[in-house]
Structure prediction request, 854 residues.
Amino acid sequence: MQEKVYPRIHEKVITETLANGLKIVIVPKPGFTKAYAQLSVHYGSIDAAFDAGKGIVVPPKGVAHFLEHKVFEQPDGGNALTTFAQTGASPNAFTSKNMTAYHFSCTENFERNLEILLDFVSSPHFTEENVSKEQGIIGQEIGMVNDKPDFKVYENLMANLFKVHPARDSIIGTVESIGNIDRNVLYDCYRTFYIPSNMLLTVVGDVDAKKIIETAEAMLDKKYTTPPKRDYGVEPCDVACAEICQTMECNLPIFALGFKKLAETSGDEGAANRACASMACELLFGEGSAFYSELYGKGIINQEFGAEAIFYPGCIAIVLSGESRNPELVKEAVLKVSHNIDDEYFERIKRAIYGMKIRRSDRFASLCRSIAEAEFANFDYFDTFNIFEKITKRDIMKFVESFPWEKSMTMSKVLPKNEEV
Amino acid sequence: MQNVYREILPGVRLRVISTDKFKTSCFSASFMLPLTFESATMNALIPSVLKRGTKRYPDMTRLTSALDSLYGARVEPLVRKYGNVQASGVVCDLINSKCVTDGEKMLEETLHLALEVLLDPVISGDAFIKEYVESEKENLVDYLNGAINEKLSYAYGKSVEALFEGTGFGVNEDGDVTKISEVTHKSLYEHYKKVYLHAPLEIFFCGDASFEEIEACIKPALLNLPREYDNFIVLDKPAEPKENEICTQFDVLQANLLIGLYTPCRAGSTNQPAVQVLTTILGGGTASKLFTHVREEKSLCYYVGAKYDKYLQTIFMYSGVDPQKVEEARGEMLKQLIDCQEGKITDEELQNAKRYIIDGFKTNGDSAVGLEAYWLSESVMGLSREVDFRIARIMAVDIEAVVDAANSLKNCMTYVLTGKETPYARKGLPQNS
Prediction:
């Protein structure tokens, strides 16, 4: 058990890696009633082709998400959600492009809840009947998200920004692809990815670290298994399509403007690249930027506007999204944005980013997710405070100048039904 | 955790929760106003216009720069609805001084800036800046029209509007599109001055400072308030709505179904905990009847649940369903209610629901923003009850009380938002688009 103190941010972090490969990260929060635990599996929708020692396997799209739904069901016919209800915890799960995570928050019975979490994730129960039932529920979920213009605009963007990388595919799959998922597919993918060496347990709260480690050791498989190799393909620098547009039931045109750069996003180099990309995004397009105030002032963007850097293995994407009567003007402004950053502005944004990161540490769910994102990309989340501190204006200028803005640009638009495509 | 609440100036109440538990503090200041169709739009517009600039920082760039220098503190417009009460103001989150090396004056400077946004806006003559008002009017129009992007919340908004039509309870806290065009930079400033002069102000702080420190810090900014204030508003009781059935058609893949159930139980009354437990048994979380039977057993929908608006005295059961299965889902959802009315509630369901609610209460206490919402709600109800009191009241609810609560409900709304040419749409129900 290792303990590391970060005096500047007033955090202490306890870590342990078990013999089976499971890494545990505990952030003690004395005085808090709530405790939050997340068991993250390094299996997201982008892990669509992999090799677990028997050659490359490509299952139907949407398996990671399908598993997230099914893992709650237990061999005795029960459901872990019901078990959690008996202990007063609030459980949930999510699947992202990079991971699947199961979590709960509670104010009582933390240890019992942790046991429930570790137990249900370790004991899958897939039958033809329950898989078929889930196809109906996920089919409804697909219908729901496909009615959301902000979801569609983002999905369309990703499908066109990337040519090869599986980040281009929807997390949830399609009605057709999930129709091809059966219990054997689920068991194969489960056995490949749901192994301790491919998981991370994160706990935040006023908890007993020793007991958590003991519980994890006792409840999970003792054997170490090598995680699978993933195949993300070779993404070219250019995009699949520079513009995609569809109409939906919405009020204003919705846009997502994406740019990508092939870059290391893992390890120390990846952590530095991520920090540069996030900071560049804030400096160029954040609320304090000249870009934002000019476009907001002219009514080209509104309060829905956001800019973020997103990271996948081997790729950085910068995505600007929002509503605009004329998304083309946003695009023009991005391509004309000044890359000159004055010293005072640079230091100010650095302070603001530090403040944003501190604020995240009071939000347990968000903190756990950030820790897992970092761990699966082989760096320490808490080191990123120092990485940000060390970034110079020169680093940012270099990043911004070398970013292939125009060459890698994709515009995705969703227009109201009455507007022409 | 010390909690002090006092009227510090005529018409100005301050609540301070002193704790060093969080790294982030929360500060809010809200004018408390009666929610009316006539004034709601202007009250909703004011905070967004105020955020455009103060006398000291007259544009967004300068104001945001000042906030970025304060470690990215944010002052955001915040408009909320509590039945027929509208709270219009600003909320600010800031990091604690202990997390920075140069933070001695950070708290003071941030709170001053937040109050400056609320009380000392940039003006031109006797009006707001025209450009700012016109731009925020357009943003508000877009925001209100954008409600159709989220189908469930759209259905919810339309249901509330129809149920409580003609009263403040039915008014959208963000205003109405038809009222925006008549607002000018002059009329809005006139209205702002009236609010400034008359509306009671609720101020909240949760963080690492005492009541006295916060009072001393903010009082200078408040001394200029010309207080001819109205009395603090206390929530009214909404009249029992008549029965409604509405179908809206859009080009959608999934239908949204909402069932409204009116309860005679007033917000804050002694039998309110039973209604809260009933709502949770019905549709709170994954152990609820709706989730277990309608989603898990019948696979009828991806999401299904129930929410209780205590101020509107209404429970809403909601779901997203296949347009072909709306009737079936409706029947199954109502069956869960009938089961509650007939006392088909197990002790396990009751205990699970209580745990779920209590966990929510306790979790709330672990967030400065959660505490802000809790205590402002208490103020609106004219109450000041600690969470432990509420927990004890939930614990005391028995099955009989839940059954009574279920039998006192009146089914007052069926709202279906569905695709064109789907079975429900063809029934020829009243259209609302």
